[in-house]
Design brief:
By secondary structure, this protein is of the alpha+beta class. Helix content is 43%, strand content 20%. It contains 43 helices and 46 strands. Strands 2-4-3 form a three-stranded antiparallel beta sheet, with helices on one face. Helix 27 runs antiparallel to helix 28 (703-721) and helix 35 packs antiparallel against helix 36. The longest helix has 31 residues, at 1102-1132. The two termini are 36 Å apart. InterPro entries: KH_dom, KH_dom_type_1, KH_dom_type_1_sf, KH_Vigilin_N.
């Protein structure tokens, strides 16, 4: 007997809105499970809902040029995966996809009528061979066989360093095991597929036959005739071998060789050759080989998608073999003469048709633009393909090829190539700039659903903004577009980032999950107050999340204040303590473990305490533990115990080596020491310049790793200690070069070649013998380097270059950078003369008008040649002659030139810019010096000084800037037009609109500034409009039209029942806005506490006001009648009745809605109870 529960009208009233009361009668009450169905259990999304990944559905790699195409057949009995229903999916397809990814070859599968598997593999030769080996090992069942050859032939099968054996295994896709030399057996074991076994066996016997001293005969017979010689199951060839006693090796079908090898006694061999030739001559007359001319680029179209076109022909004529060779403009056909003619005519017809309607073109585009041509997700290239009905092949990045190939309809090919070249040309004229923006700001810049970045892109529509993939963890944001727009966008985004950096500081505060509701407070009061007072953003984890971290974002000091406030709430609610433990910082990483595994296990074991380690690299040893006092103590013990374990298991060793050996031990770019680290797993620490013991090298790691690393290092040091001494002859005239500047050249040689000591004879010793001492390899390398230096010194000449002294500073460049570049590029030495500023400074006094130092000179010095250059202008170069000549040309190219540009004086201050920013920017951009005359000179001439190749660009840039400034002046003059309009102040709010919407629309539409009078203005009815004259006039007309419309409006009041006001207004004013928009009127409802709560005002044009009033009265009538019906229904309702309620099926009673135990308040403490509840287990 079912039980029935009744909820009274009073207890269920507020949940009943909108339900239709049940009719009184004999209707059966609904069951509880029907009225309140349970929520579905959470279940993981089944894998079956995802699209299966297989060879047919996975993305096929683009067609690449290949060296070879091969077809492999796997008979049904040798297939590993024989489920016909799973063809094209399942494990077999996954294996094929994996093989394609591994080898780079392209696989296509098809199933024959006998359920055998045909696999077409295309790609480069090595890729096809690797794919073949994978196919036979993973898709074919394995078998084994043995072949016996003389023991002395085994080494020829193995080859030098095992290369022949490896090649044979790869070629036949088998595993070949050859007995060891000490094993008397002559049997070689082969394991693999049946086809592979035959091939391997053939190859091994062939090698053995080569080495056999008996007679060997080779007969070349076309491959197509081999089956007739071997016979079914090799029976015919076996009979011949039995009859003649000779050994006959016919290459298996999968080996592309025509040579048949016969070995044995001479008479036996001759007899076998005669029998083979007889079979061949008998069959040759009934078999034909021919070819069809077809351009190689058309081959894939002839084959068709997945071989469909070719399959139609081969199904009709299965005995004809069709072979395509990559790179050759022909197709080879082999088969019976009677079938060949039909197949050849069909193939020629297909080729003729394709040649008539297909074409191709190759265009050259810089590889750096290829990805932009492809577009995001292939959008650009797919659009071009679909639009022009062509196939476009863009080479992958690793090929570094410029050629893009387009194939298809001739007209489509022409149009597609034109569009691609135009896109590439446009990209060449664009500028790309990389902005370094921390990845953590990327999401904030993009905004929710891309709203923020959309605003930036709208502001700079010509600039393409590319953010890196989040998985790449890159900070580089790329901007591409016109130069000026890219610069503006760059500055704008840099300002956005600067604002985010200031307000982007964040803290993660661990708070126990049970206290999160207290942090939020009733109705969010607590969290809202903290946010407002600290001006921060506070994010709490989702209710169903296991995370306890509360994230605070804002300025640093504000985040700290919010953190203190949140922690204080937690401390008030629970007995939370904080403890600091000192653990050496070098152990912190090992204690944290991979991805925090170790420390997380401690936190979980100790009741969810929080353990905080200092930032890596800070050198701080203090670790903070926070949580309940008892659990904190427990976590402390575990943490210290783990640290002790880590310390005892870590091993350290020390060894010494001379400091000059350290560079050699480390190697170039750390190569030597990295090898030791990788091979042993130990960490090797060399002393820094601040360490007292410069010879001490420390090795850290496990005991075994340290021991191995120490052994390797000691061997290296020992080899360096094996010092040799060598002598070389150096002409004394070059000694000075090596020992000058305190022996800098010798020091460089010692640093570069493992601390080799080079000793020159003492000055005045008149000896040319130089001694080198050090490790043997280092001495040889140093000696070779010194001979190269001597050769350069012997070929050295001195050359002079005359350039006026005033240009020397410009030639040198900032901090001598330009002259250092010439010295480095041309390998010469350049010496500038001392600067001479005037008489008595750095040189002899210059005589003017026969006076020296202001005194008359009676007997002048020797006459000076006026054509001779001044010493202060002479630059001396030394080095090889050809290098010095090239350096002189480079120096002369750096001599600056000056040109003058006429610019109106009134524009000078705009060119200079604020604090000189404008002119500095131009000088940096064009690498010139721009001299603007002083204001008091009132001159229009601006001088530009710089390198000749920079002057033209600088002059054009300056004149372009003048044009812009002139246009801006004219534009400012036109925009300053003003006019006023007189409007009654009572209409001003209507013209402005809600939140300024109307006036903003007028300002934006007409691009003008509209100023309303201030409160204290005398002319309260004057509205001022500023802008272009025609736009200001249009804005005035728009305002006047609004005023005219307002003057025609009337206002009427009507009486509407106050009970229906809320229904008319609607949720968030949606209903009233709809009425105002539909009838173009303004509605005003009474405020709470108004004298007449039923009075509503309608304002608008007379005819529209009448229509709106009629509509409102109709709504009132409809809503009032509904209210009456609801009241009547509620009066007659007997409540909502359900059967089989949970509180009726057991001993429990229905929950008491007035009980604080059954329905507790949020935030109120609740006493623990074990009593079961109809609503399920309590989670508080």
């Amino acid at each position: 007997m079912s039980s029935v529960a009744v909820l009274t009208q009073e207890s269920f009233n507020e949940h009943r809105s909108g339900l239709v009361a049940e009719q009184a009668g004999d209707e059966e009450a609904p069951a509880y499970k029907d009225a309140f169905p349970p929520l579905p259990e959470k279940a993981a999304s089944p894998e079956g809902t995802q699209e299966p990944v297989n060879a047919w559905t996975s993305k096929i790699r683009p067609l690449k040029s290949s060296v070879i195409t091969q077809v492999f057949h796997v008979p049904l009995e040798e297939r590993k995966y024989k489920d016909i229903n799973q063809f094209g999916e399942g494990d077999q397809a996954k294996v094929c996809v994996d093989i394609m990814h591994k080898t780079g070859a392209h696989l296509e599968l098809s199933m024959a009528k006998d359920q055998g598997l045909s696999i077409m593999v295309s790609g480069k030769l090595d890729a096809v061979m690797k794919a073949r080996k994978e196919i036979v090992s993973r898709l074919q069942t394995q078998a084994s066989a043995t072949v016996a050859i003389p023991k002395e032939h085994h080494r020829f099968v193995i080859g030098k360093n095992g290369e022949k054996l490896q090649e044979l295994e790869l070629k036949t896709a088998t595993k070949i095991q050859i007995p060891r030399p000490d094993d008397p057996s002559n049997h070689i074991k082969i394991s693999g597929t049946k086809e592979g076994l035959e091939k391997a066996k053939h190859e091994i016997l062939l090698i053995s036959a080569e080495q056999d001293k008996r007679a060997v005969e080779r007969v070349n017979i076309d491959k197509v005739f081999h089956p007739f010689i071997t016979g079914a199951y090799n029976k015919l060839v076996a009979d011949m071998m039995q009859e003649t006693g000779a050994r006959i090796n016919v290459p298996p079908p999968s080996v592309n060789k025509t040579e048949i090898v016969i070995t044995g006694e001479k008479e036996q061999v001759a007899l076998a050759v005669a029998m083979i030739k007889k079979i061949y001559e008998g069959k040759a007359n009934s078999y034909t080989v021919s070819s069809v001319v077809a351009p190689s680029w058309l081959h894939r179209f002839i084959i068709g998608k997945k071989g469909q076109n070719l399959a139609k022909i081969t199904q009709q004529m299965p005995k004809v073999h069709i072979e395509f060779t990559e790179g050759e403009d022909k197709i080879t056909l082999e088969g019976p003469t009677k079938d060949m003619q039909m197949v050849q005519s069909q193939m020629e017809a297909i080729v003729t048709d394709l040649v008539s309607r297909m074409d191709y073109m190759e265009i050259s585009v810089d590889p750096r633009f290829h990805r932009h041509l492809i577009g995001k997700g292939g959008a650009n290239i797919n659009r071009i393909k679909d639009l022009h009905k062509v196939s476009v092949r863009i080479p992958p990045d690793n090929e570094k090829s410029h050629l893009i190939r387009i194939e298809g309809d001739p007209q489509g090919v022409q149009e597609a190539s034109k569009e691609l070249l135009e896109l590439a040309s446009r990209m060449e004229n664009e500028r790309t700039k990389d902005l370094i923006i921390e990845q953590r700001f990327h999401r904030a810049i993009i905004g929710q659903k891309g709203e923020k970045i959309k605003d930036v892109r709208d502001k700079f529509p010509e600039v393409i903004i590319n953010f890196p993939d989040p998985a790449a963890k890159s900070d580089i944001v790329q901007l591409r577009g016109p130069r000026n727009e890219v610069e503006k966008c760059s500055k704008f985004m840099a300002k956005m980032v600067a604002d985010m950096v200031e307000n982007g500081f964040f803290l993660s505060v661990p708070i126990f999950k049970q206290f999160h509701k207290n942090i939020i407070g009733k109705g969010g009061a607590n969290i809202k107050k903290i946010r407002e007072e600290t001006n921060t953003r506070i994010d709490l984890p989702a209710e169903n999340s296991n995370s306890e971290m509360i994230v605070i974002t804002g300025k640093k000091e504000n985040c700290e204040a919010a953190r203190i406030r949140i922690l204080s709430i937690q401390k008030e609610l629970a007995n939370i303590t904080e403890m600091e433990v000192s653990i050496p910082s070098k152990l912190h990483n090992s204690l944290i473990g991979s991805k925090g595994r170790f420390v997380r296990s401690i936190m979980e074991e100790c009741g969810g305490v929080h353990i905080h380690f200092p930032t890596e690299g800070s050198g701080i040893d203090t670790v903070t533990i926070r949580g309940p006092a008892e659990e904190v103590e427990k976590a402390k013990k575990q943490l210290l115990s783990l640290a002790q374990d880590k310390q005892t298991k870590s091993h350290t060793a020390e060894l010494k080596a001379k400091p000059e050996y350290h560079k050699f031990l480390i190697g170039k770019g750390g190569g030597n020491i990295r090898k030791v680290r990788d091979s042993t797993g130990a960490r090797i620490i060399f002393p820094t310049l601040d360490d007292e013991d410069q010879e001490l090298i420390t090795v850290v790691g496990t005991e075994e790793a340290v021991r191995e690393a120490q052994k390797e290092l000691e061997e290296l040091i020992k080899s360096l200690d094996n010092v040799v001494e060598d002598v070389m002859n150096v002409d004394p005239k070059h000694h000075r070069y090596f020992v000058a500047r305190r022996g800098q050249v010798l020091r460089d040689i010692a640093d570069e070649y493992g601390g080799v000591m080079v000793s020159f004879p003492r000055s005045g010793a008149n000896s040319d013998k130089v001694t080198l001492k050090g490790a043997k390899d280092c001495v040889e390398a140093a000696k070779k380097r010194m001979l190269e230096i001597i050769e350069d010194l012997d070929a050295q000449v001195t050359m002079e270059c005359v350039i006026p002294q005033k240009f020397h500073r410009s030639i040198m460049g900032p901090k001598g950078s330009r002259i250092q570049g010439i010295t480095r590029d041309h390998n010469v030495q350049i010496k500038f003369p001392e600067r001479v500023d005037g008489p008595g400074k750095g040189g002899p006094a210059v005589q003017e008008n026969g006076e020296a130092n202001g005194e008359m000179v009676e007997e002048p010095a020797a006459p000076v040649d006026p054509t001779a250059p001044k010493k202060c202008d002479v630059i001396v170069l030394s080095g090889r002659k050809e290098r010095c000549e090239a350096a002189v040309e480079a120096l002369k190219a750096l001599v600056p030139v000056t040109t003058e540009v006429e610019v109106p004086f009134e524009l000078h201050r705009y060119i200079i810019g604020q604090k000189g920013s404008g002119i500095r920017k131009m000088m940096d951009e064009f690498e010139v010096n721009i001299q603007v005359p002083a204001p008091e000179l009132q001159s229009d001439i601006i001088s530009i000084t710089g390198l000749a190749n920079h002057l033209d660009r600088a002059k054009e840039g300056l004149l372009e800037r003048v044009k812009e400034l002139t246009a801006e002046q004219e534009d400012r003059s036109l925009r300053s037009f003003k006019l006023t309009i007189t409007v009654d102040p009572k209409y001003h709010p209507k013209i402005i609109g809600r939140k300024g919407a109307k006036i903003t629309n007028i300002r934006t539409e007409h691009d003008v500034n509209i100023q309303f009078p201030d409160k204290n203005d005398d002319n309260q009815d004057q509205i001022t409009i500023t802008g272009y004259e025609h736009k200001a006039t249009a804005a005035r007309d728009a305002i006047q039209a609004i005023v005219d419309e307002l003057e025609e409006m009337i206002s009427e009041d009507i009486t509407l029942d106050a009970r229906v006001h809320a229904r008319i207004i609607g949720a968030r004013g949606k209903g009233i806005r709809k009425i105002m928009d539909e009838f173009k009127v303004d509605l005003r409802f009474p405020q709470p506490g108004a004298a007449d709560p039923n009075q509503v005002f309608v304002t608008g044009r007379p005819e529209l006001v009448d229509e709106a009033i009629d509509h409102l009265l109709n709504l009132e009538e409809e809503y009032v009648s509904t209210l009456v019906e609801v009241v009547e229904e509620r009066g007659s309702s007997k409540g909502f009745v359900v059967r089989e309620a949970p509180w009726q099926t057991g001993s429990e009673k229905a929950p008491d809605m007035s009980s604080s135990e059954d329905f507790p308040s949020f935030g109120a403490p609740v006493a623990a109870t074990n009593k079961a509840s109809p609503w399920g287990p309590k989670r508080f």
